[in-house]
């Protein structure tokens, strides 16, 4: 399966649009515009989770889901001399902050700033400082708190990184926030393929792009109660554990380019997982296996534990350098995740036996 030009154009626009947790609306607008021709109906809930529906009148409901939000920072404190201190919005990594350019989403529009850091010359003969939430700061060129506020920057303003999408060595997609807008791209492509291949399905399919995953799976928790699905297949990213400083004994053995990762975990339903694996084998789609104790840490848990229990499964995309501005995924893996979800959806039947006993 090759990527369509329109698909890649959508992916680039979608990834380059800021969509921080709690402020996902601009990214969601891009996503809805793309998916609208491929579904029968588009809905948005009160907090911004979007979903396109194929066969909205059907009683049996299947969700394929990703999350739309990206990590970011909040303005937390402005000093008298115009420097800005921050708190996390999601799992932002303070270690990568020094020297990064940022966009501060102020009341008068975007203001550029930089995470400052003392020069190496000034750090000699002392304990090397380590970036911490308490010591990283943003300089927006202002010299007083009043000047910062005149720029439209106040406590509570959102801060994002502007790093944009590119392809590397014709093998990887690279961008900030591939976690997990690449998932939104993949489920949208499933909807496109179903429409363009004129496939009919005997159930309602809810292509769902949830908000607020990075702070507690909240969007998925809310939308699961709204949709009340019979089955949920979630896609997210997982770690490529072959890069330096990652312990495979702890994090497992997954690698970019080796295929989608099918998870084994308490919240993953045996029947749905085995359907996914059987589909991968039948269609000769490469796949990897991973295990998670207690929880997957993804929206799978929110769906599985909703509405008295929803049979759910997780298909993950291996990713390098998670929660940095240079997240990397294999183009071939992206193709294979799309194909695996698409082919699995085509094999789902409302009369499937979902109870263990």
Outline of the structure:
The chain is of the alpha+beta class. It contains nine helices and 17 strands.
Q: Can you describe what's shown?
A:
Zn(2+) 1 binds at residues 67, 179, 236. Keywords: Aminopeptidase, Hydrolase, Metal-binding, Protease. InterPro entries: Peptidase_M42, Peptidase_M42_aminopept, Peptidase_M42_dom2. Belongs to the peptidase M42 family. The chain folds into two domains: 5-70 and 176-347, Aminopeptidase (3-Layer(aba) Sandwich); 72-160, Beta Barrel (Elongation Factor Tu (Ef-tu), domain 3), CATH 2.40.30. The chain is 27% helix and 26% strand. It has helices spanning 5-16, 25-35, 145-150, 178-196, 218-227, 248-251, 270-282, 299-304, 331-347, and strands spanning 41-44, 50-54, 61-67, 72-78, 83-89, 101-106, 109-116, 137-139, 158-160, 166-168, 172-175, 204-210, 231-239, 261-264, 288-291, 312-319, 327-330.
Radius of gyration: 21 Å
SSE order, one letter for each helix or strand: HHEEEEEEEEHEEEHEHEHEHEHEEH
Low-pLDDT runs of 5+ residues are none
**CATH level-1 class of the largest domain:** Alpha Beta
Q: Into how many domains do the coordinates divide?
A: 2
Helix content: 25-40%
Instruction: Summarize model confidence as the mean pLDDT.
Output: 97
- CATH topology-level fold name of the largest domain: Aminopeptidase
Q: Can you identify the CATH superfamily of the largest domain?
A: Zn peptidases
**Overall morphology:** globular
Please report the number of helical segments.
9
Strand order of the largest sheet: 1-2-12-3-13-16-14-15
User: How widely separated are the two ends?
Assistant: 39 Å
Structural class: alpha+beta
Described by strand count, sense and barrel closure, the largest sheet is:
8 strands, mixed
Q: What's the total count of β strands?
A: 17
Which architecture of the largest domain would the CATH scheme give at its second level?
A: 3-Layer(aba) Sandwich
β content, as a range?
A: 25-35%
């Amino acid at each position: 399966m090759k990527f369509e030009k329109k698909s890649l154009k959508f992916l680039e626009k979608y990834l380059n649009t800021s969509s921080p947790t709690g402020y996902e609306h601009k990214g969601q607008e891009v996503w809805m515009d793309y998916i609208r021709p491929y579904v029968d109906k588009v809905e948005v809930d009160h907090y911004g989770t979007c979903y396109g529906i194929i066969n909205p009148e059907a009683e049996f409901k299947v969700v394929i889901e990703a999350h739309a939000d990206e990590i970011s920072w909040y303005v937390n404190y402005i000093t008298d001399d115009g420097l800005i201190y921050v708190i996390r919005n999601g799992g932002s990594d303070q270690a990568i902050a020094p020297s990064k350019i940022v966009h501060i989403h102020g009341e008068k529009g975007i203001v550029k700033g930089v995470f400052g850091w003392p020069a190496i010359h000034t750090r000699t003969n002392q304990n090397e400082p380590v970036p911490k939430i308490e010591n990283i700061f943003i300089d927006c060129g202002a010299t007083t708190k009043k000047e910062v506020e005149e720029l439209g920057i106040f406590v509570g303003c959102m801060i994002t990184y502007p790093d944009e999408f590119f392809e590397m060595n014709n093998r990887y997609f690279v961008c900030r926030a591939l976690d997990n807008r690449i998932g939104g791209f993949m489920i949208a492509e499933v909807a496109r393929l179903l429409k363009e291949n004129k496939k009919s399905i005997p159930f309602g399919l809810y292509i769902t792009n949830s908000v607020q995953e990075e702070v507690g799976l909240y969007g998925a928790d809310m939308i699961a109660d709204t949709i009340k699905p019979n089955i949920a297949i979630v896609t997210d990213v997982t770690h490529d554990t072959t890069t330096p400083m990652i312990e495979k004994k702890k994090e497992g053995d997954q690698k970019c380019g080796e295929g989608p990762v099918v998870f084994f975990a308490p919240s993953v339903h045996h029947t749905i997982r085995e359907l996914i694996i059987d589909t991968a084998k039948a269609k000769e789609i490469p796949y990897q296996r991973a295990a998670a104790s207690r929880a997957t840490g993804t929206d799978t848990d929110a769906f599985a534990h909703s509405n008295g229990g929803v049979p759910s499964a997780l298909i993950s995309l291996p990713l390098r350098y998670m929660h940095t501005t240079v997240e990397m995924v294999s183009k071939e893996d992206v193709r294979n995740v799309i194909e695996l979800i698409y082919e699995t959806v085509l094999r789902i039947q409302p009369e499937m036996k979902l109870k263990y006993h």
